[in-house]
Amino acid sequence: MTFHINPLHASFAGEVIGINLSRDCGSEILGYLREALDTYAVLVFRGQLLSDDQQLLFAQQLDGALHTKTGVAALGPNRFGNEAITDVSNIGDNGAILKSSDRRSQYALANRLWHTDASFESPRGKYSLLSARIVPEQGGSTEYADMRSAYDELDLDTKAIISELKAHHSIAYSRERLGFEFKANEREILYGTAYPIADLNQRTGRTALYLAAHASHVVDWPIPDGRLLIQDLIEHAVDRKFVYTHQWKAHDLVIWDNLTTMHRGRPYACYTDKREMRRVTTLDC
Ligand code: OGA
Ligand code: MN
User: Fold this and answer.
1) E strands, 118-161, where?
2) Can you tell me the distance from the alpha carbon of 183 to that of 69, in angstroms, rounded to the nearest whole number?
3) 85: Cβ below 6 Å to ligand 1?
4) Separation of alpha carbons 91 and 59, rounded Å
5) pTM above 0.85, yes or no
6) Which residues are CB-contacts of 140 (< 8 A; sequence separation ≥ 6)?
7) Residue 263 C-alpha to ligand 2 middle, in angstroms?
8) Pocket probe mutation, ligand 1, options 70, 88, 133, max atoms within 8 Å of Cβ
9) Are the C-beta atoms of residues 41 and 261 closer than 8 Å to each other?
10) What are phi and psi for residue 166, nearest 5 degrees?
């Protein structure tokens, strides 16, 4: 079998050609994809007709344990009855498009802020595998930022300032920024955790900026100082030269490394056009 990767951006992101994920996941392919994720951080596969079970199995084969404590679970169980599948769709239990008044659709809007998945958990999210089943005619792309190149291009003073700092991440913070209101018990479940901002990966020897809309403050810093630093770093990291934009087609599967990228969804007519997307995220453990 022959397979290869076509680069999609100058510093990261590639399209994998010649692999059928519902069939070809032997150890040779899995090893090739793990190495490719260390190099490209974002891998695009077109034309992958995957069932939920196939998506779950492939994620487990690729990287082991799956993330199940999704933030949205604090609002109640999802329509699949399996919290390892994160519902990134705008569709409710009855198959109809969620109304703007629905808490779930308001909650989901925070995916349009630059973030990385499950940074508020311990262990945190590692790879996300997002499968597009139905895509809207217009809009609804996903942007990815290369956080290793963004780190490399920081000035030396900034690298020195952040070298020992941690940011606290809570999914409640990213939602509250948009005005979403949690009940006290929901907020308690979503307290979150802290991680280094300059994150050295022992395997690759490269450092990435580890930031997200979930990053609420810098540990041991006054809140406003920390928020300004986080804001400045995110602004730097999402310069267009670090960004790849994925235009979805139905049956695309995109895998990204949450430890070396950030991403955000872009707007579409979410109260009238269906967008059915299912995500499985592995854990960094
Ligand atoms: C996600 C996510 C953005 C999008 O699945 O984690 O943030 O464009 N998705 O749907
Ligand atoms: Mn996400």
Assistant:
1) 125-134, 142-146
2) 18
3) no
4) 23
5) yes
6) 248, 265, 266, 267, 268, 270, 273, 275
7) 6
8) 88
9) yes
10) -120, 150
Between CA 33 and CA 31 the distance in angstroms is 5
pLDDT at position 17 is 97
Query: Ligand 1, atom 8: nearest CA belongs to which residue?
Result: 265
Number of domains within the chain: 1
Confidence at residue 133, expressed as pLDDT on a 0 to 100 scale? 97
CATH number at residue 163: 3.60.130.10
Q: How far apart are CA 67 and CA 123, in angstroms?
A: 9
Spatial distance between the Cα atoms of 264 and 243, rounded to a whole number of angstroms: 11
Which domain does 60 fall in, by range?
Answer: 4-283
Residue 8, by phi and psi: left (phi above 0), alpha (psi -120 to 50) or beta?
A: alpha
pLDDT in tens, 171-219: 999 999 998 888 888 888 888 999 999 999 999 999 999 999 999 999 9
Distance CA 221, CA 162 (A): 12
**Mean model confidence pLDDT for the chain:** 94
